[in-house]
Amino acid sequence: MAGPRGQEFPGSTDLAPPQADALPHQVTSACGTRTDDYYWLRDDTRQSPQVLQYLARENAYTNAVLAPHAALEQALYEELIARLAPDDQSVPVRYRGYWYYRRFAAGNEYPIYARRQDSMNAPEQILLDGNDLAKGQEYFEIGDYAVSPDGNLLAYTCDVVGRRQYVLQVKDLRDGRTLSDAVANVEAQVVWAADNKTVLYIEKDPVTLLSVRLRAHCLGTEPASDRLVYEEPDHSYYLSVDKSRSEQFVLVCSASTDQTEWRYVYADDAQLRCHIVLPRECGHEYDVEHLGEDFIIRTNWNAPNYRIVRAPIGAVADKRTWQDVVAHRDDAFVEDFQVSSRYLAVNERSGGLLKIRIRDWRGQGDWAGDTLVASGEASYAMTLVPTPDIDSCVLRYEYTSLTTPRTTYEYDMATSERQWKKTEAVLGGFDAKNYQTQYLFATARDQTPIPVSLAYRRQTPLDGSAPLYLHAYGSYGYCVNPRFRSSWVSLMDRGFVVAIAHVRGGQEMGRKWYDDGRF
């Protein structure tokens, strides 16, 4: 096999980049045969001398080009590191008499998950210490964890191979023992049934690694005998599992590119029987939550920007029973929602920004009676944070902008009072008051106004003389929120204006914004 062509490094004065040889290779598939000139660069073994030599030349070229900037590179690196808090801790969440949180210990790489009973002044009980679990592993990641309804057991998943092939294990929180139960090759998510002894998980196909089967593991039994609850026959769908906020249902989602199908299992059903919410149909995407005798559904049926409907559990498949809770709007995209006993919180995109709207279930269903959570900045993003306790009137959300680090608030939906809980620490002398953010519109070639979020240090001249760093991404409906990036502080401190162009292909301005950017 031939190798790469190009100049020798280091020491060359001609910084021509190395070029990979074009070696035609025929790739045959069900769609026909195509020629791939660079197939030889694929090396799953990571041992090909030709590939390793080529990568070494690429690295040498990069080092040679960047050599004159070594001092600046080191200064930027030191700035970025200096802004990181080494001992960060999440805002505690209360659940069944305990306060749960995640923290990092200075000098350690992995999170520690812990809880305290009744009060944050109570002794700490460590649920999982990622630093201990990672010892001796070349790769390590905690996927998810779930506490049993009685608070005595912890089901958790860990990946030690780096391919999202998690192992499910269970820990007895009363004495700290890790039980012998271990289920390999599963997805990260785990959910407890109501009996405190059954854990539901998603089994992956051992070859394709697709999520294909929902199984139930009963503690003390062999994983080989785990009950099959549901198997997804169509491998263009991905399977996931969650629990309703009411904790009465296990919710199972099959999702493909533009279709979803949900199933529900009563958490206290010993037989774990699966029921379909709505059968899959072409182009229909929906999400499900539970409230009382009804399902609350976010759906794009006859609603490109989505709407939220309410329907009786037993008749939900009959769309004639649906009652609009949040009607479709051309100027607002319903991205997410959270149900509580008295209120509905909606994450909507309107005017290009991610906002939170509150609706009282006792209202008349018109938008005029809603509460829109306020912001003091021109460009920002508010994101609902899922929390337990469906009867609580308090919701939690995260707020951020290009000049405001991620900040957690609690909002009382009954009184409209907001309480600050935490702002993500940014060390190194950062002060948000030194920076300004704006929200503008730029006219595209077809005369469409494109939203642009920008920020800069307050002393920066705005006469066009300042350098601009422009970020844009438009595909898959993915929205680029104007969130705080500590690395961009280094640019703003050096006189840059930083900007995000919210181009078509995302969904900032609704589903049509995505459709207009496709292909």
Secondary structure elements and pairings:
Elements: E1 26-29, E2 32-35, H1 49-66, H2 70-82, E3 93-95, E4 98-103, E5 112-117, E6 125-129, H3 130-133, E7 141-147, E8 153-159, E9 166-172, E10 178-192, E11 198-204, E12 211-218, E13 227-231, E14 238-243, E15 249-255, E16 260-266, E17 275-276, E18 286-291, E19 294-299, E20 307-312, E21 323-326, E22 332-339, E23 343-350, E24 353-360, E25 371-372, E26 381-385, E27 394-400, E28 407-412, E29 417-423, E30 435-443, E31 449-457, E32 468-472, H4 486-492, E33 497-501, H5 511-517
Would you kindly provide a written description of the structure presented here, covering whatever features stand out?
The radius of gyration is 26 Å and the shape is globular. It is built from five helices and 33 strands. It starts with 25 loop residues before the first strand and ends with a helix. The protein folds into three domains: 1-82, no CATH class; 93-329, Methylamine Dehydrogenase, Chain H (7 Propeller), CATH 2.130.10.120; 432-517, Alpha/Beta hydrolase fold, catalytic domain (Rossmann fold, 3-Layer(aba) Sandwich). It has 519 residues and is mainly β. The protein has a seven-stranded antiparallel beta sheet, with no helix packed on it. A four-stranded antiparallel beta sheet has the order 3-4-5-6. It has helices at residues 49-66, 70-82, 130-133, 486-492, 511-517; strands at 26-29, 32-35, 93-95, 98-103, 112-117, 125-129, 141-147, 153-159, 166-172, 178-192, 198-204, 211-218, 227-231, 238-243, 249-255, 260-266, 275-276, 286-291, 294-299, 307-312, 323-326, 332-339, 343-350, 353-360, 371-372, 381-385, 394-400, 407-412, 417-423, 435-443, 449-457, 468-472, 497-501.
